[in-house]
Amino acid sequence: MELDDLDHRILQELRRDGRASVSAIAATTHISRANAYVRVNRLVESKVIQGFGARVDPVLSGQHSSAYVTLTLDQTAWQDTRERLSQIAEVEHIALVGGDFDAILLVRARNNGDLRRVVLEELQAIPGVRSTKTALIFEDFDAI
Predict the structure, then answer these.
(1) Burial grade of 61 (CB within 10 A; 0-12, 13-18, 19 or more)
(2) To 10 degrees, what angle do helices 5-16 and 22-29 make?
(3) Parallel, antiparallel, or unpaired for β 129-137 and 91-96?
(4) Residue 34 and residue 55: Cα distance in Å, rounded?
(5) Residue 99 DSSP label
(6) What are the percentages of helix, strand and coil residues in the chain, rounded to 5?
(7) What Rg value do the Cα atoms of the chain yield, rounded?
(8) With a threshold of 0.85, does the pTM exceed it?
(9) How far apart are CA 84 and CA 127, in angstroms?
(10) Of the candidates 63, 9, 65, which has an alpha carbon nearest to the alpha carbon of residue 40?
(11) 3 exposed, middle or buried (CB, 10 Å; 0-12, 13-18, 19+)?
């Protein structure tokens, strides 16, 4: 599906406010409500929009320690490793990447002790994980 400038403006508005009504999207993008409805529906049906959710403040929700954890993997075990990673509640995001490491995770935990447990006892216990490096996050903010 080819997206035009209007589709991108609609997506930007929904990134800014996922609860925006079709009327609000129409007003901010300067199109009719009917056109906004059709376009949003098309973006959902084509899976460009894969769902709607809430942005949660990690600290206010009790996750006081966050880190990006890079993994060097046994790449022949990627499917099994990905499945195990997705079962760890503290792992918020997983990305397979190219470069000096194979994957990067966003991990959010209650505190540094909990973060330590996730990295040393859960991540490093996965057979396909060869090594990890952890970068603590001091502050989060949205770019949008």
Answers:
(1) exposed
(2) 130
(3) unpaired
(4) 28
(5) S
(6) 40, 20, 40
(7) 19
(8) no
(9) 10
(10) 9
(11) middle
